[in-house]
Specification:
The structure is a homodimer.
Chain A (H helix, E strand, L loop, with lengths): L10 E5 L3 E2 L5 E2 L2 E8 L9 E5 L26 E2 L4 E2 L4 E5 L14 E2 L4 E2 L9 H16 L6 E5 L1 H12 L6 E5 L7 H15 L16 H15 L2 H7 L19 H14 L4 H13 L10 H4 L5 E7 L7 H13 L4 E6 L13 H12 L1
Parallel strand pairs in A: 5-8, 5-11, 6-7, 11-12, 12-13, 13-14
Antiparallel strand pairs in A: 1-4, 2-3, 4-8, 9-10
Chain lengths: 370, 370
């Protein structure tokens, strides 16, 4: 029987040296907030790095207090005896650079001015996120080598980037529900979300105060994005055309269907935990992600990879559909790399990597321990 | 060689008698704006009624002045010698009840108060739209019988509704890219669009003045909806990851990719031609559309149909995917009706019914003249 990680606490790694972003702009330093579960072995070679998606954070397993109603976002796969077994592996997860859950992002104070960065924060890339993580692992935890990097969606992009940027220091990659480059459709959805935020008068050119912000725009962006994380069939199964209760004596455009009520709730709750400017920066990093080299092929970039790679795609994911997951593996195989592809039949869309899925657990567990 | 309809003018049918909506509320009267092309024959049995989609209108062919840069929205299929041949058929198209292009809708003045209806306008249904059309055809044009009803998307819903409500008065139906009921995913997208509009402070509870309105919210709603009218592959083919020119010295979140610039343009231009409250009402009519009867089957409702039916689906349409188009035909066939289904291979998504498609023209032309 798998157990639970239990009570966990976060830590902050503070880097006081300048960090030059891929685009050339310089941060005077940065903080990454992270959590760890399990124990680093003496050889320091049992670390599994977890990379989170757009709206995720460093808290991927366990609880912060005994009254916590919800554990970390990947608690179903991380823990003693679970697929990512904390009795065997030292699991690390950090909030990305540009984020808003403790790591340095646009809502952080610029030490040079004493004011929040807002839009003076430089554009960060997936590569910048990975370089900041690498530094944190080395300097805060003394970890030079990773047993594996695992992540879904934007986390999968980071896993790939790890394999490319640090080929000699990572043994296994498990990118899930991801892509080697953001498609036009995915860019389009992100752009509409960004415009919803930026056209909210409360955005104020990004310079909203700590108590305010474009809540309405951010909620709309989140609701739209949330549809892309599910699937047509999954929504049909879960909501269909079910009405909300108390249908009478309401105004024309109140939530009438369950699916409307569900989305409104998703929008409201997201606003309470996420910063709108971080949403702009991180979604932009996603849109700019493209592993194709100057000659237009994936092979140019993936040739650097030395890790063994297991790519996992989900049949009902239409944001990063199986074809995009497969393309990564095909390019790796054309380069003669050790890569395999598993496609799981699911009806839950892009978010399939986050839900209870014994088939996924077996794949991950075997790949990590083999 | 097919010719052009050429210069056309619209007409207004004004009904001064009360109109009771499906929901029970009463309009003191209504206006429908319409256009006609070709000539009604002596037997008055050569009318082809065209029904438009959410953002369409009565102007589906020809030009309004010699300086018009764009003809009506379905000019490629309607005209002398075209698939819907105006030398043979009398083509009629009206702006739907609830619309904003001349027909009575929430922005119209309530004669009882002298003020615009705004949200006092009753919720209208697809059935209400069809009943208003029927009255207009009979009273304004003396037409009792239709050779065919043709429409895509919401226009296809109206075509089906015509066949159900007036089985003895319509000979042929061509519903395209449509559904017998709005799916949870389609409702979800409409709901996010409505919230974008209603949460724009300029919406003012629906009571914005004639010069104002929630332009920002409406543009966001339109941009998001526009993504659902295209397809992943179509967007990849058209835009891919092409950058806009003049990339330097711009701010972080200006349009960077062509697809972003295209969507922004779509949003801006829609605001100039569409009323936000009409968008709320018509999208709601779509969401409420469900031809399934009390026992939960389509057959209960479709049993009434006597017309021959040709349903056309498009392989890349993910808003009303082929499976939903097919379901209509299967139910008709189970009822012993004369129905057939054509599925066209396209990459242009839901909007495929609007673009140049010789295969579609042949199907429509043969079905109308057979």
């Amino acid at each position: 029987m798998p157990g639970e990680v239990g009570l966990v606490a976060w830590h902050d790694y503070v880097c006081k040296e300048p960090f030059v972003c891929e685009g050339g702009a310089e941060l005077p330093g940065f903080t990454l907030r992270y959590e760890t579960y399990g124990h680093l072995n003496k050889a320091k070679d049992n670390t599994v790095l977890i990379c989170h998606a757009l709206s995720g954070d460093h808290h991927c397993a366990g609880i912060h207090s005994l009254s916590d109603r919800k554990p970390g976002w990947w608690n179903n796969i991380i823990g003693p005896g679970k697929a990512i077994d904390t009795e065997r592996f030292f699991v690390v997860c950090s909030n990305v650079l540009g984020g808003c859950q403790g790591s340095t992002g646009p809502s952080s104070v610029d030490p040079r001015t004493g004011q929040p960065y807002h839009l003076d924060f430089p554009l960060v890339s997936i590569s910048d996120m990975v370089r900041a993580q690498e530094r944190m692992l080395r300097e805060a935890l003394g970890i030079e080598r990773l047993h594996a990097v695992v992540g879904g969606s934007m986390g999968g992009m980071q896993a790939l980037q790890w394999g490319i940027a640090y080929p000699d220091r990572v043994d296994r990659l498990i990118p899930m529900a991801t892509t080697a480059r953001q498609s036009a459709q995915a860019i389009a959805f992100n752009e509409v979300g960004r415009l919803a935020i930026m056209q909210d008068p409360e955005w104020k050119g990004g310079a909203y105060g700590p108590g305010g912000g474009p809540d309405v725009g951010l909620a709309v962006a989140r609701m739209m994005a949330h549809i892309t994380y599910l699937s047509d069939r999954g929504m049909e199964d879960k909501f269909g055309r079910e009405r909300v209760l108390g249908d009478s004596a309401r105004s024309h455009f109140d939530a009438e269907f369950q699916v409307e009520s569900y989305l409104r709730y998703q929008g409201r709750s997201f606003v309470n935990r996420f910063d709108a400017n971080s949403y702009l920066y991180i979604s932009k990093a996603l849109d700019r992600f493209d592993l194709h080299g100057p000659a237009g092929t994936l092979e140019e970039t993936l040739l650097a990879v030395r890790a063994r790679v297991l790519v996992v795609g989900f049949s009902s994911d239409w944001l990063f559909p199986p074809s995009q997951n497969r393309a990564i593996v095909h390019a790796l195989l054309r380069c003669g790399k050790n890569a395999s592809y598993a496609e799981l039949e699911t009806s839950l869309g892009h978010d399939s990597f986050l839900v209870h899925a014994p088939e996924l657990y077996t794949l991950v567990s075997r790949f990590l321990t083999n």
